[in-house]
Design brief:
The protein is α+β, with helices and mostly antiparallel strands and 119 residues long. It has helices at residues 2-22, 26-29, 33-38, 59-83, 87-101; strands spanning 42-45, 50-52, 107-109, 115-117. It has a 4-stranded mixed sheet with strand order 2-1-3-4. β1 (42-45) and β2 (50-52) form a beta hairpin.
Length: 119
């Protein structure tokens, strides 16, 4: 009986190891902001936040956008407090700068709401 339990334990460990090797990690599958922009999935907006160019997108892309926008909003709040500006002023300036820095060929959203590839 003991040999059977040991064999079962070894088999379970081997299967676990095989699955760990065969299954890509979440880290390896995660899309980067650069990749999402290059693929035309997301772009910069005049309000200082990322936007999704062509919904629907994968949950992974949506999570990336939400996380970056959450961090940006916190940073904009901090800047607004330090400078005595409003959040809206900081967002607008950040959006203007982000669009200026966007490389040609990537998407930006016009104030009208239309997405275009930057020239």
């Amino acid at each position: 009986m003991r040999i059977r339990n040991q064999a079962t334990s070894c088999l379970i460990m081997a299967l676990g190891l095989l699955l760990a090797i065969a299954m890509p990690s979440a880290q390896a599958e995660a899309i980067t902001l650069h990749e999402a922009k290059q693929q035309g999935l997301v772009g910069e907006q005049s309000n200082g936040y990322l936007g999704i160019v062509h919904p629907p997108v994968s949950p992974e892309v949506r999570k990336l956008v939400n996380e970056i926008n959450r961090k940006r909003r916190a940073r904009y709040h901090s800047i607004a407090r330090k400078t005595g500006s409003t959040l809206e002023q900081v967002e607008a300036l950040a959006g203007k700068k982000a669009i200026e820095k966007t490389a040609p060929g990537l998407f930006v959203r016009l104030p009208s709401g239309r997405w275009i590839r930057k020239r």
